[in-house]
What we know:
This protein has 400 residues and is of the alpha/beta class. The chain folds into 2 domains: 4-246, Alpha-Beta Complex (Spore Coat Polysaccharide Biosynthesis Protein SpsA, Chain A), CATH 3.90.550; 271-399, UDP N-Acetylglucosamine Acyltransferase, domain 1 (3 Solenoid), CATH 2.160.10. The protein is built from 8 helices and 30 strands. The longest helix has 18 residues, at 192-209. It is globular. The N and C termini lie far apart (56 Å). The structure holds guanosine-5'-triphosphate. Guanosine-5'-triphosphate binds at residues 9-11, 15, 58-60, 87, 90-93, 96, 117-119, 248.
Amino acid sequence: MATTKGVILVGGPSKGTRMRPLTLDCAKPLLPIAGKPMVWHPLASLAKMPGLTEVLIIGFYEDSVMAGFVKDAKREFPNIAISYLREYRPLGTAGGLYHFRDSILRPPCPQNIFICNIDICCSFPFQEMMDLHSKHRGVGTIMGVNVKRETATQYGCIVSDPSSLVVHYVEKPESWISNMVNGGVYLFDKSLFDEIKVAMDDKAARAAEDPLVQSDEMLRLEQDVIVPLAAARKMHVYETKDFWRQIKSAASAVSASSLYLSRFQKTHPELLAKPSATVLAPSYIDPSATIDPTAKIGPNVAIGPGVRVAAGVRVKDAIIFEGTSLEQHSCVLNSIVGQNCQIGPWARLDGVPEPEDNKGKISVTVLATEVTLAPETLVRSCIVLPNKTLSKSYASRVVL
Ligand code: GTP
């Protein structure tokens, strides 16, 4: 069986700004989604692939930010090597791959390399991509997703022929060309590095002639590598019919969490809370959380470590971060409650699910770290910054 490796591109502190205020205290790849750090989801799926020997997580966070996760992951997935490689500065989605090519290609040298963006949630159909890739043996297979025509131009758009060959790729085109978009998951042959080298040399040649083009290691996988690969008919597309969602905004974390919780019903039922009259499936409750038996939890709820849920509380479609306390008869719907918040008795947090084409309107309520809500307050579709104490009700605003 051919050796395979996985790369997860996690970006760095200057990325994921739309995740604020949650990313003020927690790096985006480590935000809890369905009770697990965001980066755990692609990693757990990669670890199941036959022939996969190693996963390299590439980003520009300090090593110390990712060290705890990598240590835990090595223990949880002992059959594969796992490491974090830090870019000295943001090198773009292809620059980092190229910079660390020796680490990726070191023995056992992989024939195939899966590459995943961190900011998407899907079922990671790696085996299906591998089956298609093994048939066509082009340089790469991209996971395509069908989206609504109105939203397609927000993504990298793919035009393919009936044999799955990509004939045209445009990153965020000005006008509509296709409903099939780049889902942020790829499978490449190791010859990807030859193609990136061509793109690097091309950029260096342009930089020599044009002072506006910087001569550095920064390179984008989508525009600088996949566009020419598509033009040279070297890319194929595997269209997933399963769920797919971007995780760009704090609000989108709630829908991603729900989708992963539903998936856990098939893939990791042992992680989910046992359904009962007061716990509705699918829900995740950390074993260290304390839940009053009269509280009603779920569906689509993820409750973190050390959370205390008092009598008569209602929680639905929500993520509750570590150390938070929901006092008696409080209600949390369509919301994210950050670390160590105090939700007073009879207080209510709610919002509406994020629409697919969310344009600026606040939908889901998001409380950052250490926010306190006084008893009986109502907070609807708000973003609340850290360390605030709210003693009155708010709606549809950012509370600074
Ligand atoms: P936006 O809509 O502007 O967010 O663009 P996009 O959806 O194409 O996303 P973007 O290219 O910013 O990021 C795609 C993925 O690559 C994400 O998982 C990022 O975390 C990751 N990423 C982006 N830039 C870098 C980088 O310089 N280095 C590394 N290692 N990862 C990156």
